[in-house]
Amino acid sequence: MQLSKYSNDSDEGSIRNVEMMNRFLEDSELDKRNFFMEELSLLDPDIIITANLWECGVNEKYLEQCFPREKFKNWNGYNNNTAQYGDFELNGKTIKLINTYHFSARKSSYDCFYEPVMNILFPKK
Question: Reduced to 3 states, what is the DSSP secondary structure of residue 56?
Answer without folding.
Answer: coil
